[in-house]
Specification:
heterodimer; A: 171 residues; mainly alpha; elongated; B: alpha/beta; 7-stranded mixed sheet; 7 strands; globular
């Protein structure tokens, strides 16, 4: 390997390692994601600084021009890192989708509870139904206190609990 | 995760929770079975109110849930004004993400049946109760309104945009693929008109593609051991707006759905083999 190429490769890999460590120190690169980068940086540093290793491996693989092995190693790591990043992105996309769905459901629930609390604060009549987003004429959605099943009575109890909070806040 | 967030909020929607599959020996719904119509909608302000009203008039006992998939128009307001419950997604998730929101809602609130319709008014509301009836009487877990079934009860009187020749060819290809992979007859694998029972709701709430989910969903249902039956329906002409699938996206659509469908066969999923039905 020509000395100029070697110097350039060593400087570049040292720079890369320094940048990686700086980012980790600043908390801008998570350690789990940094492992691959560190491995890439050290591999290139080793191959470029220790000339014997590069030529030995190149000869072993029948590579005529040894420095091209450096490119190959760099390329392999680049592909690997890209693939891992795409996988991470897919996972994050799944998480943001879950969060968005969760948010919309929670928002709806908060609105409904708020409606019930407002209502109970203004009037003591225990009908939460007419503040629901649905029309009150619908039987299944209107009256939490109209207990038909055991399941519903616990539901009504819990609603009463939240209602009393509303009353206290109002009084 | 599904189990952990099962009981988060009590309320009137909980009445149906105690009705479990064990209470359904004849496949007939008990008197208090809770129905939820879910309507995913993206910029459908002109048609959404009508869809909500017609669903209500044909299924008066059902609750109606519109999932606003990040619309930039007044879809949410119109749906709310028409008397629907409205979930507003903070940004556009895609049709599958919106529908899955409805499944999650239904699962958590303890609904027994979900009827999914599109927000553009292309589905005949009369079919809603028909799909439900057939599902309950045939004892299947899912019924799907099919536009292409050869044994269509009514003639395809109104040809619409959805049945142009390349699209018909694509639908046929996907139907062939799904038939082969599930070893069940399939004719319309992209239909957005579906009825699901509790088991199917739970399954798809946990695992549903974010965009173009229908074809892949058939495989997911099949792998979970759920029974799917197609019922011939006629689509109404689209009264407003255009299909979400433009020419430019068609290629991506085919490639994505093809890959997702084939991969759905081998993908790890929490629901594979969960319900093995004696058919």
């Amino acid at each position: 390997m020509p000395p100029k190429v070697q110097a350039l490769a060593v400087a570049a890999s040292l720079g890369l390692l320094a940048l990686i460590l700086y980012l980790i120190r600043k908390g801008r690169l998570r350690e789990d994601h940094a492992i691959l980068w560190l491995m890439a940086g050290f591999s290139i540093l080793m191959l470029s600084a220790w000339r014997g290793s590069l030529t030995a491996i190149a000869r072993m693989l029948d590579i005529g021009y040894a420095p091209s092995l450096l490119f190959a190693v760099g390329l392999v790591f680049t592909l690997l890192i890209l693939l891992v990043q795409t996988a991470v992105m897919s996972r994050l996309a799944g998480h943001t989708r879950d969060l968005a769905q969760e948010l919309s459901i929670l928002q709806w629930q908060v609105q409904r509870l708020q409606g019930q609390m407002d209502h109970d604060g203004n009037a003591s009549v225990d009908t939460a139904g007419d503040r629901l987003p649905t029309s009150d004429s619908q039987q299944p959605t209107s009256q939490p206190t109209n207990q038909q099943t055991g399941e519903r009575s616990t539901a009504a109890l819990r609603l009463d609990g939240s209602d009393s909070v509303g009353k206290e806040a109002a009084s | 995760m599904a189990a952990a967030c099962n009981v988060t909020l009590s309320g009137p929607y909980m009445m149906a929770r105690q009705v479990t599959d064990a209470n359904l020996p004849s496949g007939k719904p008990p008197a208090q079975a809770a129905y939820l119509v879910i309507v995913p909608a993206l910029n459908e302000e002109l048609t959404i109110a009508e869809v909500v009203q017609s669903a209500r008039s044909h299924l008066p006992t059902a609750d109606i849930l519109v999932i606003d998939d990040g619309s930039s128009d007044r879809t949410a307001a119109e749906a709310s004004r028409a008397g629907a419950m409205v979930l507003s997604l903070p940004y556009n998730l895609g049709i599958g993400g919106a529908v899955q929101t409805g499944f999650k809602f239904a699962h958590r609130m303890g609904y027994d049946y979900v009827i999914r319709v599109d927000g553009d008014g292309q589905h005949d509301p009369q079919d809603l109760s028909r799909l439900l009836d057939i599902m309950q009487h045939q004892q299947v877990d899912v019924t799907i309104g099919s536009r292409f079934q050869p044994t269509s009860l009514r003639p395809q009187a109104v040809p619409d945009r959805a049945t142009t020749r390349p699209r018909r060819l694509g639908s046929w290809g996907f139907a062939l693929l799904v038939s082969a992979l599930t070893r069940q007859p399939a004719s319309d694998t992209t239909s957005g008109l579906q009825c699901l029972n509790r088991r199917a709701i739970e399954c798809l709430a946990a695992d549903y593609a974010q965009d173009y989910p229908e074809v892949e969903g058939r495989i997911t249902l099949h792998r979970a051991g759920l029974r799917v039956l197609e019922v011939p329906v006629v689509m109404l002409p689209r009264s407003n707006g255009r299909s979400s699938i433009t020419h430019a996206r068609a290629l991506y659509y085919v490639a994505k759905v093809l890959l997702a469908t084939v991969m759905a066969v081998i993908r790890e999923t929490p629901y594979a083999g969960r319900h093995v039905n004696a058919t």
